[in-house]
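ok so I'm stuck.
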Amino acid sequence: QGIFDTSPLGIILVEAVTNKVFHANKAAIDLFGYNDSSLEDIYKLSLKDVIHEDDLEMAATKRKKLIEGDFDSYRIECRFHKKDGTIIWVQSFTSLLRNEDGTPKLIITQVEDITARRALEAESYKNASQFKSAFDYSPNGMALVSLNGQWINVNRNLSKMIGYTNDELMQMSF
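replied:
not stuck anymore, here's the structure
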């Protein structure tokens, strides 16, 4: 109980049969913005109440396969709606606790807000795309060369300037 209550990760226990929240720790309640809600209201929630509609089918399919025994656990990244409507990205790790007879008992999910990480990844991708476009379409001949003199990348204008194809340059060093 102490680990459950003090974990920095949100932990949500869901009844496998009813698909309703059985218990959630403070970190999970805070993550989804339900701090001012009663436990009774929180325990009425199901996955479809909080997950982004575009991610529901994928998450439901994973959960169904977990319950059917196709795998013991899974990890997904998907969007969720906080209580105030804000969309957050969440990484979740889900496993299943079974009864002694093998029937599903509790779905155990650990959740972590990865919204900031996803924003950084998107910004990084945008910057990389802009660099690649500027590199590839520069009117100047440009190349990336490793510290040991190997060509890493060459734009087509440099290939034209020095009279070698891109493939030929990639085989050379200087």
